[in-house]
Design a protein that fits this description.
single chain, mainly beta, five-stranded antiparallel beta sheet, 1 helix
């Protein structure tokens, strides 16, 4: 996973509004997960134990993810023709694929694929002539309750998954169909294997930006542990900035990896047996509609309540940024002795910030010039704050 650790330049204007404190709760023992919109707050707080498998609903998607908190997945190496006579001897030695957290498409069931075969989608084989996917693997689910089920996706044809499951001895066999168009506008639909039921638990994709959740992952070879983490939605990207005071941080390169925020905003103190928030770390979240929000974590209660505390601040507005950028003119650029600022709004304050995020020059008045003759050559950012508290930022090069 690639994460941005240094502040990078921005070549457009931004507007900042007041910082807002907020929190979400996953409940004691992390029983729930929270779908969150930076504009509207929490959209849905849902049970995180009522599903076992989730199915990709995108037009060409075929990913199947696993709720590892409920069950372990084993991959059978034989043919689907062995369904009725499946022999689970040596089950503990079978491959145990898990979800990936770079992209939503990295489902555990999907990760059983042969990397040398581009048409192997993990549970089935894609036919480029018919655009159908036909099941090619059998899986076994071992539940925390001690129950076992064999499972396979028989096909994905014309937007409908055909799935089959049964006890290992063939009893209680169930065949079901999941039709994508029944859940239009959502990313995944979910399935409760032991109760043979489809679970429609996810809000519309357009309504949320990130999901606060807890899941199991292999943290070290052979060690599976829980992570309280933040994952972001499709068409939402995140820039992580660390090593810079959060008040001065500016967005760097945006990352599409869904766990860019992830879980490393906190650490556990063995001396106090409490979680501590990592200092000088923040995230810029660019949402589906191109708004940008600055996210700073402020507290975490751990499993006692599952409460997560943070501040959010909208620093760019879709549709307004371009106009503000066009109206902010700074010259000469590169500059030597002083810079002139032409801005249509009444200026309350100007701050010049170096690439490390430190304010190196400041002026609290409606003057349109700033002296830079005593500053080293390099790249800086000029923050112009108007009397309504909005901030426009431009990159400045100083050359002597």
């Amino acid at each position: 996973m690639i994460k941005q650790l240094l502040v990078c330049s921005v070549g457009f204007a931004t507007i900042a509004q007041a910082q807002v404190s907020d929190m979400v709760s996953l409940g004691a023992g992390y029983t729930n997960e929270s779908y969150y919109s930076f504009q509207n707050g929490e959209v849905a707080n849902v049970d995180n134990y009522n599903w076992d498998l989730s199915f990709d609903l995108s037009s060409w998607g075929a990913a199947v993810r696993l709720n590892r908190k409920n069950a372990t997945l084993y991959t059978y190496s034989g043919s689907t023709a062995d369904w009725s006579t499946l022999d689970t001897t040596g089950l503990a030695t079978w491959e145990q694929p898990m979800n990936g957290f770079d992209y939503w498409e990295e489902g555990a069931v999907s990760n059983a694929a042969d990397p040398q075969n581009p048409f192997d989608l993990g549970w089935g084989e894609y036919n480029p002539s018919t655009h159908q996917i036909i099941g090619s693997r059998i899986f076994v689910l071992e539940f925390t309750s001690g129950e076992y089920k064999k499972f396979m996706v028989e096909s994905l044809i014309s937007g409908a998954y055909a799935i089959r499951m049964a006890d290992l001895n063939g009893a209680n066999e169930v065949a079901d169909t999941i039709t994508k168009t029944n859940y239009t506008g959502k990313n995944f639909v979910y399935y409760d294997v032991l109760n043979d039921s489809i679970i429609d638990r996810e809000p519309l994709s357009a309504d949320w930006d990130v999901v606060f959740t807890n899941y199991l992952q292999e943290l070290a070879p052979g060690y599976i542990g829980g992570l309280t983490s933040v994952l972001h939605n499709y068409n939402t990207v995140v820039s992580e900035v660390s090593g810079v005071p959060t008040a001065n941080a500016t967005a760097g390169v945006y990352d599409t990896t869904i766990a860019t925020i992830g879980s490393d905003w906190k650490s556990f103190s063995m001396s106090t047996f409490t979680y501590e928030i990592v200092d000088s770390l923040c995230y810029f979240v660019k949402t589906q509609n191109e708004d940008v929000w600055k996210l700073v974590f402020t507290g975490f209660d751990g499993s006692s309540t599952g409460n997560i505390y943070f501040t959010k601040e909208q620093v760019e507005f879709a549709g307004i940024v371009e106009e503000m950028g066009a109206n902010l003119v700074v010259y000469p650029n590169p500059a030597n002795n002083e810079i002139n600022v032409n801005f249509p709004h009444e200026i309350a304050e100007m701050n010049l910030v170096n690439i490390s995020g430190r304010v190196v020059a400041s002026q609290a008045s409606n003057l349109s010039q700033l002296n830079v003759s005593n500053l080293p050559s390099g790249v800086y950012f000029l923050n112009v704050i108007d009397t309504e508290g909005r901030v426009a930022t431009q990159k400045i090069n100083i050359q002597h």
